[in-house]
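Protein in question quoted for reference:
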Amino acid sequence: MARTKRHETNGLARIGVAIDADLLARFDAWCAANGRGNRSEAFRDLIRERLVEAEMDERVEVVAAVSLVYDHHRRELSRRLIHLQHEEGHHVVSSMHVHLDHDRCLEVIVLRARARDARAFAERLLAEKGVEHGGVFLTRRIHPAPSAGALARGHAHGGTAPHRH
């Protein structure tokens, strides 16, 4: 990658970026629609998001949300998706099924797994014939899941004693 000249002031590096005018117009519209203060803030947020994703160690424990949009009329697809979730039952925490219209459904599956396992499972789901669109969102597990005993007595917030609200 070629290095460009950059100017640093108070820990901030100023760079120049060449971007297609139509793409910039779409980006500006996205910034306005999503309440981004300015282009710099939006660029930083997008860069951070991509870096967190790229730097996530494949062995780290994550919570993942896998979303799928599919045609529920597609032969056997619902059965195959359910079967895959049962195969990974030790990772599946919850799932939600939403009817979008007469033909399409949205399925959101929440997992607790290692990053590589969550991504692999998401890819298996997304590869099913009839799945039209989908994606996976991963975030590091901040606190360990509460123990069964803690759940029976109430719940815990990372390091605090189990309690009820």
Observations:
- The beta strands are 7-9, 12-14, 61-71, 92-99, 104-114, 131-140.
- The chain has a mean pLDDT of 83.
- Residues 61-140 form a domain with the Alpha-Beta Plaits fold (CATH 3.30.70.1150).
- The longest helix spans residues 39-55.
